[in-house]
Design brief:
With 332 residues, the chain is mainly alpha-helical. 76% of the residues lie in helices and 3% in strands. The protein has helices at residues 2-42, 48-88, 127-130, 134-165, 173-179, 182-203, 210-217, 223-235, 240-271, 278-284, 288-331; strands spanning 107-111, 117-121. The protein has a two-stranded antiparallel ribbon with strand order 1-2. β1 and β2 (117-121) form a beta hairpin. The N and C termini lie far apart (92 Å).
Length: 332
């Protein structure tokens, strides 16, 4: 028996090491692949407009790939859970048909630093949080490698912008940050660091929540529409009807991928505990760090979307008038 336990422990350790190494390789391979694509397309001495176009194109390619992989992974998980329901007669993603009762054993009591106890739903067997997947980890590794590579491209873009505005000036980090897209740069670095922390947990055999993480990666689905809008406004500004349609499409895509999606993820988590309302599970069943994280994300994305709607709404009458004039002039 002792020998069997040692053999099992050794084989498990070897399997975990292999999975961790595979994740590391996926991050490095993603970084190198996107970097090679950049270097091949942009050339040896790219201009600022060309580099910006390459960054936009690579981002569109990556966001399309990760969205397709994320949808496939999420559907695969749902299929596996459905098969488990047929086999075991029990849905692993739903612990109860009603909201948890006070006496339910599915509550977990947690004491904060002040000694106050609060009860939360027990997620120790919740597949939404406990599911572990090599494919899911690979998707996050691809995302991490891309973000690290794109950070370098954004700094390169800032360098070209600096040389254009102040030729001959010796660049430094402060100047690069001054001419870089600081919002996008902070976004990339923040998410890349978070994913690197997740992969550290993979090495420690403590990774959890891959299903939820990949759900959040569906936010990438709005990026191709954003880049289409930028491309039309930059290279085809006279195609006013197409520019307007792309702006309206981006308003809808941003809302679905970055505002509605957050509520959908919270609602999916709530369903695993019998809740039907995202608001109810948010205020009654989610731990404070999760509340703060998802709440801040939803508020920030809603604020960005509101500003986007206001911007498009302000330009809409003028754009419609110009489109009407252009169509009238063509007829005459």
């Amino acid at each position: 028996m002792a020998e069997a336990k040692r053999t099992f422990a050794t084989s498990r350790a070897a399997a975990l090491t292999r999975l961790a190494v595979e994740n590391d390789v996926a991050i490095i391979a993603s970084f190198i692949a996107y970097r090679l694509i950049h270097r091949y397309v942009e050339g040896s001495n790219p201009s600022l407009p060309r580099l910006s176009a390459v960054i936009s194109g690579t981002t569109t390619l990556h966001s399309s790939i990760t969205t397709i992989l994320a949808v496939y992974f999420l559907r695969q998980c749902q299929t596996q859970w459905a098969e488990r329901v047929l086999h075991n007669g029990k849905n692993p993603a739903i612990k109860t048909d009603t909201v948890l009762e006070e006496s339910s054993s599915l509550w977990q009591e947690i004491t904060d630093g002040n000694g106050r106890a609060r009860r939360y739903p027990d997620d120790s067997t919740n597949p939404l949080l406990q599911t572990r997947s090599t494919l899911g980890n690979t998707i996050t590794a691809i995302e991490c490698g891309f973000l690290l590579q794109d950070t370098i491209s954004l700094l390169h873009e800032a360098l070209l912008r600096l040389r254009l505005v102040k030729p001959g000036l010796k660049p430094n980090i402060r100047l690069l940050l001054q001419y870089a897209d600081k919002t996008l740069l902070a976004h990339h670095i923040g998410i890349a660091l978070a994913l690197l922390v997740f992969h550290y947990y993979v090495h420690q055999d403590r990774d959890r929540g891959i299903y939820i993480i990949v759900q959040f990666l569906l936010m990438n689905s709005s990026t191709p529409v954003l880049n289409l809008r930028w491309w039309l406004r930059t290279y085809h500004p006279n195609s006013r009807l197409l520019c307007l349609c792309s702006a309206l499409a981006f308003v809808a895509a941003f809302y679905m991928a970055r505002v509605w999606l957050v509520g959908w993820i919270i609602r999916e988590y709530g369903k695993s505990h019998g809740y039907t309302s995202a608001w109810k599970i948010y205020f009654e069943g989610m731990r404070l760090p999760c509340q703060m994280g998802t709440g801040a994300l939803w508020i920030a994305n809603t604020a960005w979307w509101t500003l986007l709607v206001i911007s498009v709404a302000k330009r809409l009458p003028k754009e419609l008038a110009r489109i009407g004039e252009a169509m009238h002039s063509k007829k005459s």
